[in-house]
């Protein structure tokens, strides 16, 4: 790298924390695909659910969100206290950027104030919290938790005292649900793969009785359970069957039972769904809702378990994963394609929450509107409105989308895929304008020049393909190809006059290209040290090298972007964090503001055209986070994280990549 001419003395260069901050404003997405029983309506009128490491409280009438941000990794389950105010959420184990374990645990918090009341299980749980439930008969004094370890340990806690009371191995098979009996405080029920267990809890001991299916077909999975007003237990299974389990007549009414534990026997069987019964929901009226997997049906059952009404969830939304009671005669449905629906049997469904269903990398902000586009491995391309947080349109591609860029006119958007194909879509109608192909490997970056007359396409085949563009992005002609990188293209930027390109590659090269003179590689890189790049998304370069953490192996940063006002740099790292640095950032180990919300590698970041907001995308968590930029208060009440450190140097990556020359 070469120090720009306007830097008289590099030793005088300093990088401080920027006065700007990020505040999480909106979360797009819902984790329905791999979870169940994770949507509820609170007395505040908010739907509570989770995605990534954020628990969202969404008021669908006022179109507002609040966020509980206490978790350090992916939230897996939640339970509502009988008072409908306190909430318990459990997370999986994780690892921070230094390789230190982030321990799985349960957080109990107040849904009104969003304050954390208690943290339990640190150092106890192994892999993560699979399911959990508050007790009901004693007004929620206790909490039962299933650990996702091999033995699926069941623990019972006095959560207010942070005290573990009892612990026992359940089974090596998958455990899908745990519940306290609502009448008998001594009975806990768990179910999962090929089993249902009835636990008698007494002091520090737990005694197990296995449910015997006898003459009834044993299901592969007991998917869910609920309690009838009689005290009987209702289960739904993978065969589409509802089973009623009644306490054995030999049992005492207190439920303490014999030494071996409480016994329940099947008293009734009802065929309910084609395919699995994924969820059961007890209504305030005493009626029951069931949700089916394969048949995607919601069925209302009366007190005698007779089907009263039913309706089908349209195929486009996926299969049912969660059902919860809403306001009046409404109910809420979470689906495998990450939709949350609100509906009634009379009026059908409204979509309240939606998002991507597979790994998400492509992100582009509109050049003149407060909208942004995402594309993912689920083949969906989505245009989102950042003002009302709605999905303006979506369409499906034949390929996995990976990168995108709007034409400066905003009329069209170019989308690169995993196969070397790239599509041009009309940004208003979603009509296909054209399909082009460059090689047969993944395209990693699409970038229009400032005036929109050229398009650069960076590929994993190590080439940058250039096209001339006309008719407001509707016509493309091959112009040339940049040949010289020895690894796949990761990032690139244009100069304002479209004469030069700066590019980065997978082996940490920084190369510069002379576009008018045949897309030639510029051998004397010092010629480019004073170019004022129109955008800054390259992760390697003099103006941004300070963002790299000490000891990095070069893969820790997935994306960065400079704000349009050139004041800050936003960065997406591989450790679930979004960073905000001051620009330029040309001092080693520069300080940053760090923000948590994602539970997977953060794949991309983009400022809206007016710098009012930053958008970040998660990889495997499939989430989109919208952050509002705020200025530091005059009293300095918000304290930044980290501090400035001097010197260039650090790990092997520093020595390998960042070699300076002053000319």
From TrEMBL:
<keyword id="KW-0131">Cell cycle</keyword>
<keyword id="KW-0853">WD repeat</keyword>
<protein>
    <submittedName>
        <fullName>EMAP like 4</fullName>
    </submittedName>
</protein>
<dbReference type="GO" id="GO:0030496">
    <property type="term" value="C:midbody"/>
</dbReference>
<keyword id="KW-0206">Cytoskeleton</keyword>
<feature type="transmembrane region" description="Helical">
    <location>
        <begin position="39"/>
        <end position="60"/>
    </location>
</feature>
<keyword id="KW-0493">Microtubule</keyword>
<dbReference type="InterPro" id="IPR036322">
    <property type="entry name" value="WD40_repeat_dom_sf"/>
</dbReference>
<feature type="repeat" description="WD">
    <location>
        <begin position="482"/>
        <end position="523"/>
    </location>
</feature>
<feature type="repeat" description="WD">
    <location>
        <begin position="353"/>
        <end position="385"/>
    </location>
</feature>
<keyword id="KW-0812">Transmembrane</keyword>
<dbReference type="GO" id="GO:0072686">
    <property type="term" value="C:mitotic spindle"/>
</dbReference>
<dbReference type="GO" id="GO:0008017">
    <property type="term" value="F:microtubule binding"/>
</dbReference>
<keyword id="KW-0175">Coiled coil</keyword>
<comment type="similarity">
    <text>Belongs to the WD repeat EMAP family.</text>
</comment>
<dbReference type="InterPro" id="IPR050630">
    <property type="entry name" value="WD_repeat_EMAP"/>
</dbReference>
<dbReference type="Pfam" id="PF03451">
    <property type="entry name" value="HELP"/>
</dbReference>
<keyword id="KW-0472">Membrane</keyword>
<keyword id="KW-0963">Cytoplasm</keyword>
<feature type="domain" description="EML-like second beta-propeller">
    <location>
        <begin position="360"/>
        <end position="629"/>
    </location>
</feature>
<dbReference type="InterPro" id="IPR015943">
    <property type="entry name" value="WD40/YVTN_repeat-like_dom_sf"/>
</dbReference>
<feature type="domain" description="EML-like first beta-propeller">
    <location>
        <begin position="64"/>
        <end position="343"/>
    </location>
</feature>
<dbReference type="InterPro" id="IPR055442">
    <property type="entry name" value="Beta-prop_EML-like_2nd"/>
</dbReference>
<keyword id="KW-0498">Mitosis</keyword>
<dbReference type="GO" id="GO:0051301">
    <property type="term" value="P:cell division"/>
</dbReference>
<dbReference type="InterPro" id="IPR005108">
    <property type="entry name" value="HELP"/>
</dbReference>
<feature type="repeat" description="WD">
    <location>
        <begin position="270"/>
        <end position="302"/>
    </location>
</feature>
<dbReference type="InterPro" id="IPR001680">
    <property type="entry name" value="WD40_rpt"/>
</dbReference>
<keyword id="KW-1133">Transmembrane helix</keyword>
<keyword id="KW-0132">Cell division</keyword>
<dbReference type="Pfam" id="PF23414">
    <property type="entry name" value="Beta-prop_EML_2"/>
</dbReference>
<feature type="repeat" description="WD">
    <location>
        <begin position="595"/>
        <end position="629"/>
    </location>
</feature>
<dbReference type="GO" id="GO:0005874">
    <property type="term" value="C:microtubule"/>
</dbReference>
<dbReference type="InterPro" id="IPR055439">
    <property type="entry name" value="Beta-prop_EML_1st"/>
</dbReference>
<dbReference type="GO" id="GO:0000226">
    <property type="term" value="P:microtubule cytoskeleton organization"/>
</dbReference>
<keyword id="KW-0677">Repeat</keyword>
<dbReference type="Pfam" id="PF23409">
    <property type="entry name" value="Beta-prop_EML"/>
</dbReference>
């Amino acid at each position: 790298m070469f120090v720009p001419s306007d830097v008289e003395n590099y030793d005088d260069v300093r990088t401080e924390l920027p006065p700007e901050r990020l505040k999480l404003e909106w979360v797009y997405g819902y984790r329905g695909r791999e979870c169940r029983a994770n949507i509820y309506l609170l007395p505040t009128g908010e739907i509570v659910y989770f995605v990534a490491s954020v628990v969202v409280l969404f008021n669908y009438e006022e179109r507002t969100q609040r966020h509980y941000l206490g978790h350090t990794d992916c939230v897996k389950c939640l339970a509502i206290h009988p008072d409908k105010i306190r909430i318990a959420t459990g997370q999986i184990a994780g690892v921070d950027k230094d390789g230190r374990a982030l321990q799985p645990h349960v957080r109990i918090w107040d849904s009104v104030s969003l304050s954390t009341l208690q943290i339990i299980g640190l150092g106890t749980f192994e892999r993560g919290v699979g399911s959990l439930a508050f007790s009901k008969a004693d007004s929620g004094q206790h909490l039962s938790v299933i650990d996702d370890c091999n033995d699926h340990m069941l623990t019972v806690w006095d959560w207010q005292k942070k005290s573990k009371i009892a612990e026992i191995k359940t089974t090596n098979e998958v455990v899908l649900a745990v519940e306290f009996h609502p009448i008998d405080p001594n009975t806990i029920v768990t179910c999962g793969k090929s089993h249902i267990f009835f636990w008698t809890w007494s002091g520090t001991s737990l005694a197990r009785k296995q449910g015997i299916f006898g003459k009834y077909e044993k299901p592969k999975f007991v998917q869910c359970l609920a309690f009838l007003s009689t005290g009987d237990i209702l289960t739904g299974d993978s065969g589409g069957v509802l089973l009623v389990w009644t306490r054995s007549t030999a049992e005492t009414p207190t439920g303490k039972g014999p030494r071996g534990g409480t016994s329940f026997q099947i008293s009734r069987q009802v065929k309910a769904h084609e395919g699995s019964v994924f969820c059961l929901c007890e209504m305030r009226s005493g009626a029951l809702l069931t949700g089916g997997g394969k048949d995607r049906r919601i069925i209302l059952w009366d007190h005698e378990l007779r089907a009263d009404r039913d309706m089908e969830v349209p195929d486009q939304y996926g299969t049912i994963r969660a059902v919860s009671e809403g306001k009046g005669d409404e109910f809420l449905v979470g689906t495998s394609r990450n939709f949350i629906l609100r509906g009634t049997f009379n009026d059908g469904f409204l979509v309240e929450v939606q998002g991507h269903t597979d790994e998400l990398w492509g992100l582009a902000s509109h050049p003149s509107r407060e909208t942004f586009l995402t594309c993912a491995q689920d083949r969906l391309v989505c245009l989102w409105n950042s003002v009302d947080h709605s999905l303006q349109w979506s369409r499906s591609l034949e390929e996995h989308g990976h990168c995108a860029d709007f034409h400066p006119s905003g009329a069209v958007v170019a989308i690169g895929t995993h196969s070397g194909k790239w599509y041009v879509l009309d940004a208003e109608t979603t009509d296909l304008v054209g399909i082009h192909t460059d090689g047969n490997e993944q395209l990693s970056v699409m970038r229009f020049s400032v005036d929109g007359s050229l398009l650069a396409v960076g590929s994993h085949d190590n080439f940058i393909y250039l096209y001339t563009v006309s008719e407001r992005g509707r016509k493309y002609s091959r112009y040339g190809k940049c040949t010289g990188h020895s690894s796949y293209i990761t990032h690139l930027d244009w100069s304002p006059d479209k004469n030069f390109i700066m590019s980065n590659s997978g082996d940490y090269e920084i190369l510069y290209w002379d576009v008018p003179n045949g897309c030639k590689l510029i051998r004397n890189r010092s010629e480019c040290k004073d170019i004022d790049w129109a955008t800054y998304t390259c992760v390697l370069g003099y103006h941004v090298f300070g963002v790299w953490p000490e000891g990095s192996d070069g893969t820790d940063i997935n994306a960065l972007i400079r704000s349009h006002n050139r004041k800050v740099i936003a960065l997406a790292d591989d450790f679930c964090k979004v960073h905000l640095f001051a620009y330029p950032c040309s001092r080693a180990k520069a300080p940053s503001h760090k923000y948590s919300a994602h539970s997977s590698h953060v794949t991309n970041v983009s400022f809206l055209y007016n710098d009012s907001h930053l958008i970040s995308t998660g990889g495997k968590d499939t989430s989109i986070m919208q952050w509002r930029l705020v200025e530091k208060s005059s009293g300095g009440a918000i304290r930044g994280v980290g501090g400035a450190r001097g010197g260039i140097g650090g790990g092997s990556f520093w020595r390998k990549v960042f070699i300076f020359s002053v000319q």
